[in-house]
């Protein structure tokens, strides 16, 4: 079914054509008509499914149908899009602005997030904004400074709601909800629906249309998953081996800690591989630079932690590597969702060592799939898997004592490795 069947304004269809979207994705087909009718929507979809345009297009249509704001008048905030990370805020803002390009009524979009000075954001909000894309903490700061009011808004979008809770924004979210008008449209997007998210959705949504797509990774034909058995100490060498393959032209490597991100990137650079770390302790400017270089293909490898890489969208990313396994099965889904986006094929490779085998088995069990173990000639493991620990260490979403110990062990292991080389 083409975009033209969705009753979108011609200006929005032109913007879609500018972006070379040939046809709506499944979530766009399901969500756009319902949102245009004013319904609440709760959608579960894989990252990369096209969910940003699924809410941005109807939002823009609704706002551009309102009367133009007279010169000098304050724009009342019509829509708030809450996102968990700065990168996602910037990306969502960029998509909305791009899709609004041909509208005759100007729709102002403000993007606000923490980690940078609040003053330019306050200046930008003078005169109001139609849409604000925000991380929760900075939005509350701006509300406390009387720089913005959200009491008038018609639509609230929660993007990556599971991650908002996962990153500890629950209290901020509750404060924000209390400031919103009772009567509003709420659009709730989440990659996963653990009980806390179901509960949150139940309190926020009114007779929503529920849009569900398969969540388990085994139903994603576009992502090939591989699990390579290798000794933990030889992972960087194995990574260098793979990086010689032309298919590995751009690779997102996930590690457990900021320190590991620094060390792995540095080791690759020693072999003239263009690699940079990407984690929460880098300045906002540095993170933007690294992301820009990676997107522009000036970098072959970005070595990232989960939090930093959450929500970033890089089109045609061919390979994702779990250098360190993710802490939870949910994180595994998020990580591998970075590749194989919007119909492009993708490859997700997990390095599994003797000490992480049980952990990987539990991820497989939780996600109800099984990836065949492989060994690469010249990198055959010398250590045998450790029996015991039937849980494999995977716990809930918060760091358990065991998780903290594991993180510390991973850090020590990486540091020891660095000292040896
Ligand atoms: P999202 O799930 O919103 O992060 O989108 C993932 C990627 O899919 C982005 O690069 C979008 O530009 C792209 N995309 C969104 N909608 C479409 C579409 N209908 N056709 C092709 N690509 C799309």
Structure, explained:
- Helices cover 40% and strands 15% of the residues.
- It has 421 residues and is an alpha/beta fold.
- It has 2 domains: 3-212, P-loop containing nucleotide triphosphate hydrolases (Rossmann fold, 3-Layer(aba) Sandwich), CATH 3.40.50.300; 223-419, Rossmann fold (3-Layer(aba) Sandwich).
- The strands form 2 sheets. Strands 3-4-2-5-6-1-7 form a 7-stranded parallel β-sheet, sandwiched between helices. A 7-stranded parallel β-sheet has the order 10-11-9-12-13-8-14.
- The chain is globular, with a radius of gyration of 22 Å.
- The protein binds adenosine monophosphate.
- Residues 21, 24-25, 28, 47-53, 313, 315, 341-342 line the site of adenosine monophosphate.
Essential attributes:
single chain, 421 residues, alpha/beta, Rossmann fold, 2 domains, 16 helices, globular, disordered C terminus, binds adenosine monophosphate
Layout of SSEs?
Layout: H1 10-18, H2 26-36, E1 41-44, H3 51-64, E2 79-82, H4 86-99, E3 109-112, H5 119-125, E4 131-134, H6 136-144, E5 155-158, H7 161-166, H8 170-179, E6 185-190, H9 195-204, E7 209-212, E8 223-229, H10 235-243, E9 251-254, H11 258-270, E10 275-278, H12 284-295, E11 301-304, H13 306-309, E12 319-322, H14 329-336, E13 346-352, H15 357-367, E14 373-374, H16 401-420
Parallel strand pairs: 1-6, 1-7, 2-4, 2-5, 3-4, 5-6, 8-13, 8-14, 9-11, 9-12, 10-11, 12-13
Helix pairs in contact: 2-3, 3-4, 11-16, 14-15
Bound molecules: adenosine monophosphate (AMP).
């Amino acid at each position: 079914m083409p975009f033209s069947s969705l009753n979108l304004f011609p200006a929005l269809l032109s913007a879609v054509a500018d972006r070379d979207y040939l046809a709506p994705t499944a979530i766009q087909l399901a969500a756009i008509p319902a949102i245009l009718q004013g319904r609440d929507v709760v959608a579960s979809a894989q990252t990369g499914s096209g969910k940003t345009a699924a809410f941005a297009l109807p939002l823009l249509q609704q706002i551009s149908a309102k009367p133009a704001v007279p010169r000098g008048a304050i724009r009342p905030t019509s829509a708030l899009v809450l996102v968990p990370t700065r990168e996602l805020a910037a990306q969502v803002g960029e998509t909305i602005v791009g899709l609004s390009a041909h509208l005759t009524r100007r729709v102002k979009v403000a993007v606000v997030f923490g980690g940078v000075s609040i003053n330019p954001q306050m200046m930008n909000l003078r005169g109001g904004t139609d849409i604000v894309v925000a991380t929760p903490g900075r939005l509350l700061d701006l509300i406390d400074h009387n720089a913005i009011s959200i009491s008038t808004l018609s639509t609230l979008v929660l993007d990556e709601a599971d991650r908002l809770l996962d990153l500890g924004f629950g209290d901020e979210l509750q404060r924000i909800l209390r400031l919103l008008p009772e009567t509003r449209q709420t659009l709730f997007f989440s990659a996963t629906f653990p009980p806390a998210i179901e509960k949150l959705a139940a309190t926020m949504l009114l007779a929503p249309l529920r849009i569900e797509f398969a969540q388990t990774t085994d139903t994603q034909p576009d992502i090939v998953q591989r699990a390579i058995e290798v000794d933990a100490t030889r992972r960087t060498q194995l990574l260098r081996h793979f990086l010689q393959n032309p298919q590995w032209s751009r690779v997102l490597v996930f590690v457990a800690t900021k320190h590991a991100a620094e060390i792995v990137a540095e080791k690759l650079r020693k072999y003239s591989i263009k690699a940079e770390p990407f984690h929460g302790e880098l300045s906002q400017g540095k993170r933007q630079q690294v992301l820009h270089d990676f997107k522009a293909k000036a970098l072959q490898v970005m070595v990232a932690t989960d939090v930093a890489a959450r929500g970033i969208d890089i089109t045609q990313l061919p390979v994702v590597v779990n250098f360190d396994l993710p802490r939870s099965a949910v994180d595994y889904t998020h990580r591998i969702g970075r590749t194989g986006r919007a119909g492009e094929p993708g490859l997700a490779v997990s390095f599994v060592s003797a000490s992480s085998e049980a952990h990987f088995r539990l991820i497989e069990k939780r996600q109800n799939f099984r990836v065949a173990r492989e060994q690469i000639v010249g990198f055959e493991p010398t250590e045998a898997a450790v029996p015991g620990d039937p849980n494999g260490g995977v716990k809930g979403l918060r760091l358990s004592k065991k998780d903290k110990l594991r993180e510390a062990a991973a850090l020590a292991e990486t540091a020891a490795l660095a000292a040896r080389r």
